[in-house]
Amino acid sequence: MSTLLLTRTDVVRHMEALTLLSEMREAFRADAEGRTVEPQRARAPLHAQGSSLVVFPGILTGIPAYTVKVHAKFPGRSPAIQGVVQLHDLETGALLAVMDSGHLTALRTGVVGALASDVLARQDAARVALIGAGAQASMQLKSLRLVRSLSHVRVYDVEVARAVEFAARMYKALNLPVRPAMSVEEAVEDADIIVTATPSREPFLYPGMLRAGTHVTTLGADEPGKAEVSAGLLRQSTFFCDNRALNVAMGAPAGAGLGEECIHAELGEVLAGRKPGRTDAGQVTIFGAVGLPFQDLVAAWHVYQGARTDDSVQRVDFQG
């Protein structure tokens, strides 16, 4: 059989964010109702400048395939993450496709952030604060526009020039008021939705910094030792996550020195009607995401459905 070899260009061409958002909503619900295999993340440092990461198995009821994602993570390089997603037939193990994982991971993370905000943020939420002006910040902002009408954005980055460049680029791309902030405090002071996507190893969001009714999506704490939200703020808020076990091991609770006791629910449990989401307009909600293999599967299957009939896509027979 032939295996599809999908470049970044192929992946971009066959991904549609609004459709993927709908598919991801159903996937979170399906995962909560029928999780068959616990997600795994295996990380190994290579040297001071890089590490390897394997995320597996991406498996979900209703999709006849599974994924294994292999990443090289080199924070000093651009892009910092490079790798592939392998899509296998669930029944036979046949390798259906090998695809670049950069855009796929970035877009599915953006879609998951938007989904969390759609479920947990106030319906009238319109003011956004972005902490970290990297590639994921732009994907989060673009995805948020799928679920909320935004009025203005503030962005903070430890590198001021990067925040200034980001603000100018996003204003031009989205025709949305985006301006740089000179501190985290300034960025979040009037925000309805806060998205943090940083490599921080120390918390920078504390009690008293957020307005009542704010929603926070924290993405940076996805490995042991990383932290963005303080233990005090997690305790005072209603905390949701993508997966309990992984969040306790390496997510926002782990970074703050807390355990499962601070987790109110998984996002899938809210979507499945098993746990309540936001119950009060003044409630501060936080969603912590480490990134799950079933999310890779949903995105890879989405791409594969379009690419399999694309005659311009490369194919190879690894058995030949």
Number of strands: 17
Return Rg in Å. 19 Å
Order of helices and strands: EHHEEEEEHEHEHEHEEEEHEHHEHEHE
Total count of helical runs of at least 4 residues: 11
Q: Name the shape in a single word.
A: globular
What structural category do the secondary elements indicate? alpha/beta
What's the helix and strand layout?
Layout: E1 3-6, H1 8-13, H2 17-34, E2 40-47, E3 50-58, E4 65-73, E5 81-89, E6 95-100, H3 102-120, E7 127-131, H4 135-144, E8 152-156, H5 160-174, E9 178-180, H6 184-188, E10 193-196, E11 201-205, E12 215-218, E13 227-229, H7 231-236, E14 238-241, H8 244-250, H9 252-255, E15 263-266, H10 267-271, E16 285-288, H11 293-307, E17 314-316
Parallel strand pairs: 1-6, 7-8, 7-10, 8-9, 10-12, 11-13, 12-16, 14-15, 14-16
Antiparallel strand pairs: 1-17, 2-3, 3-4, 4-5, 5-6
Task: Give an overview in words.
The protein is of the alpha/beta class and 320 residues long. Helix content is 34%, strand content 28%. The protein is built from eleven helices and 17 strands. The chain has helices at 8-13, 17-34, 102-120, 135-144, 160-174, 184-188, 231-236, 244-250, 252-255, 267-271, 293-307; strands spanning 3-6, 40-47, 50-58, 65-73, 81-89, 95-100, 127-131, 152-156, 178-180, 193-196, 201-205, 215-218, 227-229, 238-241, 263-266, 285-288, 314-316. The strands form three sheets. An eight-stranded parallel beta sheet has the order 9-8-7-10-12-16-14-15. It has a seven-stranded mixed beta sheet with strand order 2-3-4-5-6-1-17. A hairpin with a 6-residue loop joins strand 3 and strand 4 (65-73). The longest helix is centred in the middle third of the chain and has 19 residues, at 102-120. The radius of gyration is 19 Å and the shape is globular.
